[in-house]
Amino acid sequence: MKPIRILQVLASLDIGGAEMMIMNIYRNIDKSKIQFDFVVNDQIQQYAFESEIESMGGRIYRIPRYKITNYLAYKKVWEDLLLEHPEWQVIHGHHTSPAFIYLPIAKRLKRNTIAHSHTAGSGESFKSKLKILTRYPIRHMADYLFSCSALAGEWMFGKKKKIYVLNNAIDTNKFLFSTSSREEKRLELQLENKFVIGHVGRMYPEKNHFFLIDIFDSIYKQNNNTVLLLIGDGKLRSQLEKKVMELNLSENVIFTGIRNDIPELMQAMDLFLFPSLYEGLPVTLIEAQASGLPCVVSNTVTEETKITNHVDFLSLDSSPSFWAKHSLKYVKNFKRENKYKEICNANYDVKENIKWLENFYMKNFNPLL
Questions:
Q1: Which of 59, 90, 239, 272 lies in disulfide reach of 293, CB 3.0 to 4.6 Å?
Q2: Residue 9 belongs to what H/E stretch?
Q3: pLDDT 10s digit of each residue in the chain, 369 long?
Q4: Separation of alpha carbons 151 and 165, rounded Å
Q5: Start and end of every Glycosyl transferase family domain (predicted)?
Q6: Angle separating helix axes 320-328 and 209-222, nearest 10 degrees
């Protein structure tokens, strides 16, 4: 029996919340039963997860990025793609901004559809508000509605719809605290005897990196033995590098770019700082807690993310110096611990989530059942 082929629709295959979630599932799902293919926005360079996906039998299809001006062309690409691939009986859409275009096409061609919310907010720009409008019809178009948290589901689909919450689960064992891994990575990065503050995330406005750097500036003024480790990349990187230079912090802020050793990098940290403007349910915050890190987080992030006792929610209205003072309390006398039990009890370990998703796919989409 051939596996069910499910098309996962994403904006990219670089490191991001939705991408890491789906990769955690894809690495562990029973591929004799279920196989994934991917549609993503076209770009010149290779995506971070591209080679790994192809090594597992997944196929990647690049299509033009949707813009209002290419509506008809974008619609035609989807029509042609779905007609060429009748094996995709399930379209699982994580990239929801253009879903109002591809979901009706899939429905007309008698495909099963899932819309999956990974966010609980948007920006204030005209473009952001337009995206909210285009997402509204999705709740009436998709056969099934998924979200990474109750908050993300309600924000995108409303309160009255049936929404399946699929936790942004992780491979917990990869992130459990290891003294040897910590020492090795700190030696590699020349961080011995430093207090290392870390952040993982795309360098986009919602992650609030400029405020994060202001916080670190205040931290550094109070304790110059500190280092900020910024993992990720994005359109704001050059502006952030300029700000760091203007604050004379270049020797104490490390831009790593996109990395495939995030579990080890988290071992090297002493604190996870996460002042996002809005989130769905950030995978990186679950990973940080699995690593035993204390986390200082904006109160715009849903409290559904709080698994351990070391997550502190602060207001974005508070000053950088307030955030700094709160963060520095972890410089002394904090002991990292194994958090496997807490992660599993909160249902954020990938193994249990995969069982649920496999059963959902097989029960609802297997033509032999």
A1: 272
A2: strand 4-9
A3: 789 999 999 999 988 888 989 999 999 999 999 999 999 999 999 998 999 999 999 999 999 999 989 999 999 999 999 999 999 999 999 999 999 999 999 999 999 999 999 987 666 666 666 767 888 899 999 999 999 988 889 999 998 789 999 988 899 999 999 999 999 999 999 999 999 999 999 999 999 999 999 999 999 999 999 999 999 999 999 999 999 999 999 999 999 998 989 999 999 999 999 999 988 889 999 999 999 999 999 999 989 899 999 999 999 999 999 999 999 999 988 999 999 999 999 999 998 899 999 999 999 998 655
A4: 10
A5: 182-341
A6: 60
Tokens for 109, please give them. Answer: 């061609």
Assess contact for 10 and 18: CB atoms under 8 A.
yes
For tokens 């813009």, name the residue.
67
Q: Are 280 and 119 in contact (CB under 8 A)?
A: yes
- CA-to-CA distance for 82 and 194, rounded, in angstroms? 53
Residue 227 in any domain: the answer is yes
Please return the burial class of 104, using the count of CB atoms within 10 Å of its CB with bins 0-12, 13-18 and 19+.
Answer: middle
The full DSSP string for 25-40 is HHHHS-TTTEEEEEEE
Measured over the CA atoms of residue 154, residue 160, residue 161 and residue 162, the dihedral's sign is positive
| CATH code for the domain of 203 | 3.40.50.2000
Domain range for residue 318? 172-345
Cα 36–chain centre separation: 18
User: Do 129 and 276 belong to one domain?
Assistant: no
Q: Do 80 and 29 belong together in one domain?
A: yes
CA distance readout (Å), 87 to 9, 13, 25, 365: 15, 22, 21, 12
Q: How far is the CA of 118 from the CAs of 33, 114, 216, 339, in angstroms?
A: 26, 13, 28, 25
Phi, psi torsion values for 51, nearest 5 degrees? -65, -40
Which tokens belong to 39? 């549609």
Q: Degrees (nearest 5) of the Cα angle 29, 30, 32?
A: 145
